[in-house]
C-alpha cells in the first residue's frame, strides 16, 4: 500500500529556521545518526569481503589499475569520547611531524574539531602494513579521502544519492508522535509536522482519538552508505472530527519554502508584531534610560503610543495565563501560545470583558485597551514577546509572514498543489 515512487528531484534546501522544534528533538536525530553509523559499519564490512574476493581473481596483471585498491586492507576506527584526530594518528604510530602535516592539509578543507564521537575513520593499509589512505565523512554526503604518498593529497568525494517521495496515512490512537513512529514515520518528519501545525493546534488538547494524519515527504538515500536523510514535507493533513487542516509545500517567488492551504493562505500565523491599529513606536527594544527611574535599563519590549481606550489584540492564538495588576506594568495581560511563545501587554486602562485566566483567545481578538497604569508617562502599550522564557525584540521576530498568495503566484501554487495531491493519493491507494 505504501508504495515508494522514485523521482529524481532537485534538492531544495530547508530553511532550518522554520523548524522551531528541531533542537528539542535533537536527541532523536542523534539516535538516528547512531543507527546509521551501525548500518554504515555493516556496509563497510561487506565491502571488505568483496575486496578480498577480488584479490584472488586479480592475478592477471592486465587489470593494473585495480591492483592498488585490492592491496589495501581497511580498518575502521570509531571515534570515542575524548579522542581527537591527533590522538588517533598517534595511536596509529604516525610521527609528530607527519601528524602535523596531515592535520594541516585536512584543515584546508575541514575543521577537524567538528568530527564527532561515534564517527568512523577508515584507515587503509598496504600489504607492508603502511597506511596509504585515511577516509572519513565530512558530512553524510561527502567523504574526505587523505592519500598518503610522498605527498599528502586530499580528495573530496560526493556520494551519489537517490531521491524519493513517500506517502503515509495513519490514525492517532495515542499521540501524533508515537503513532507516527508505529507507522514507520521518521522522527525527523514528525518533528516537522508538529512544527508545521504548531500555530494551529495545541497538541495536548486538540488532538483526539481517531484524528487522521496524512502526509507526503521527500527523502534522499545515500547509495553507498544506505543512510537516509529526510527533506521537506510536501503535503500534510490533520483531520480532527471531520475538520481538515491541510498544507502544501510551495516555493514562493521570493525563494522561500513555505506552506499554504488550498486557498493559498500561509499556514503559520505569525505572532503579531504590532497588536493594535494606528500606533506609533515610542520606545524600542533594548538598552535605554528609563523615563521614570532615570537609570539605564534593558527595555524588554516595544512601546506603542496610542490614545487611551485603543483596542489591543491578542498577538496570536493562545491561552491567557495572567490578567491583573503586575507592579510597574500596571494592568497587565500575558498570553501563552502553542509554540513556546508568550506575549505580554502592559499599562492597560482596562481588560476586555470575559478575558480571564485560562481563557482561550484567537489572534486578532480584542483582549484589552491602551492606558497608562503602572510606571508610565502617558498612554501607550508596552508589548513583550517571550520565547522560551527569554524576551525577544517583537520587531525582529523571525516568524513566517502569514503570506497570502495572489495573482500569478496563486495560479502557479494551485497547479502545483494539484500535482502534489494527485501524487499523494496515488502513492497511498495505488
Ligand atoms: Zn515599555
- Fold-level CATH name of the domain at 40-158: Nuclear Transport Factor 2, Chain: A
Q: Specify the number of helices.
A: 7
Overall helicity: 10-25%
Quickly give the structural class: alpha+beta
User: How many distinct beta strands?
Assistant: 24
Structure explained in plain terms:
The chain is an alpha+beta fold and 430 residues long. The strands form 5 sheets. Strands 12, 15, 17, 18, 19, 21, 23 and 24 form an 8-stranded antiparallel sheet that branches. Strands 1-7-8-9-10-11 form a 6-stranded antiparallel sheet, with helices on both faces. A 5-stranded antiparallel sheet has the order 2-3-4-5-6, with helices on both faces. Helix 3 (85-91) runs antiparallel to helix 4 (96-107) and helix 5 packs antiparallel against helix 6 (187-197). Mean pLDDT is 79; it is low at 1-69. Strand 23 (380-387) and strand 24 (390-392) form a beta hairpin. Among the domains are: 40-158, Nuclear Transport Factor 2, Chain: A; 280-396, Glucose Permease (Domain IIA). It is built from 7 helices and 24 strands. The longest helix has 32 residues, at 26-57. The protein has helices at 26-57, 64-71, 85-91, 96-107, 176-182, 187-197, 407-429, and strands at 5-6, 73-78, 120-125, 131-139, 142-148, 152-158, 161-171, 212-222, 228-240, 243-251, 257-260, 280-283, 286-289, 296-299, 302-305, 311-313, 318-325, 331-337, 341-348, 350-351, 360-361, 366-369, 380-387, 390-392. Zinc ion binds next to loops.
Amino acid at each position: 500500500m505504501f508504495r515508494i515512487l522514485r523521482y529524481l528531484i532537485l534538492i531544495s534546501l530547508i530553511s532550518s529556521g522554520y523548524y522551531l522544534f528541531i533542537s528539542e528533538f535533537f536527541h532523536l536525530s542523534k539516535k538516528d545518526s547512531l543507527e546509521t553509523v551501525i548500518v554504515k559499519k555493516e556496509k563497510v564490512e561487506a565491502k571488505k569481503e568483496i575486496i578480498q574476493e577480488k584479490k584472488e581473481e586479480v592475478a592477471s596483471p592486465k587489470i593494473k589499475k585495480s591492483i592498488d585498491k585490492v592491496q589495501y586492507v581497511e580498518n575502521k576506527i570509531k571515534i570515542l569520547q575524548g579522542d581527537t584526530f591527533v590522538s588517533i594518528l598517534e595511536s596509529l604510530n604516525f610521527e609528530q611531524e607527519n601528524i602535523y602535516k596531515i592535520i594541516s592539509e585536512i584543515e584546508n578543507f575541514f575543521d577537524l574539531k567538528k568530527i564527532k564521537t561515534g564517527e568512523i575513520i577508515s584507515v587503509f593499509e598496504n600489504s607492508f602494513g603502511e597506511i596509504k589512505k585515511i577516509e572519513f565523512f565530512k558530512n553524510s554526503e561527502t567523504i574526505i579521502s587523505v592519500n598518503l604518498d610522498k605527498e599528502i593529497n586530499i580528495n573530496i568525494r560526493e556520494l551519489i544519492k537517490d531521491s524519493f517521495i513517500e506517502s503515509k496515512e495513519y490514525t492517532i490512537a495515542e499521540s501524533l508522535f508515537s503513532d507516527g513512529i508505529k507507522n514507520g514515520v521518521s522522527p525527523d518528519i514528525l518533528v516537522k509536522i508538529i512544527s508545521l501545525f504548531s500555530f494551529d493546534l495545541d497538541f495536548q488538547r486538540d488532538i483526539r482519538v481517531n484524528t487522521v494524519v496524512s502526509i507526503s515527504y521527500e527523502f534522499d538515500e545515500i547509495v553507498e552508505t544506505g543512510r537516509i536523510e529526510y527533506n521537506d514535507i510536501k503535503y500534510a493533513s490533520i483531520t480532527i472530527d471531520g475538520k481538515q487542516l491541510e498544507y502544501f509545500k510551495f516555493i514562493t517567488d521570493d525563494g522561500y519554502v513555505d506552506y499554504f492551504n488550498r486557498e493559498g493562505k500561509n499556514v503559520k500565523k505569525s505572532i503579531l508584531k504590532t497588536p493594535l491599529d494606528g500606533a506609533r513606536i515610542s520606545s524600542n527594544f533594548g538598552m535605554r534610560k528609563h523615563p521614570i527611574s532615570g537609570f539605564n535599563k534593558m527595555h524588554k519590549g516595544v512601546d506603542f503610543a496610542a490614545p487611551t481606550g485603543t483596542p489591543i489584540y491578542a498577538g496570536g492564538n493562545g491561552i491567557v495565563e495572567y490578567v491583573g495588576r503586575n507592579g510597574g506594568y500596571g494592568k497587565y495581560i500575558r498570553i501563552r501560545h502553542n509554540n513556546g511563545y508568550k506575549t505580554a501587554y502592559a499599562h492597560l486602562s482596562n481588560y476586555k470583558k470575559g478575558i480571564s485566566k485560562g481563557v482561550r483567545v484567537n489572534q486578532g481578538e480584542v483582549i484589552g485597551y491602551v492606558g497608562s497604569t503602572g510606571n508610565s508617562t502617558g498612554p501607550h502599550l508596552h508589548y513583550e514577546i517571550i520565547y522560551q522564557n527569554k524576551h525577544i525584540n517583537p520587531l525582529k521576530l523571525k516568524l513566517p509572514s502569514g503570506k497570502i498568495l495572489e495573482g500569478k503566484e496563486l495560479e502557479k501554487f494551485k497547479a502545483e498543489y494539484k500535482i502534489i495531491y494527485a501524487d499523494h493519493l496515488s502513492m497511498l491507494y495505488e
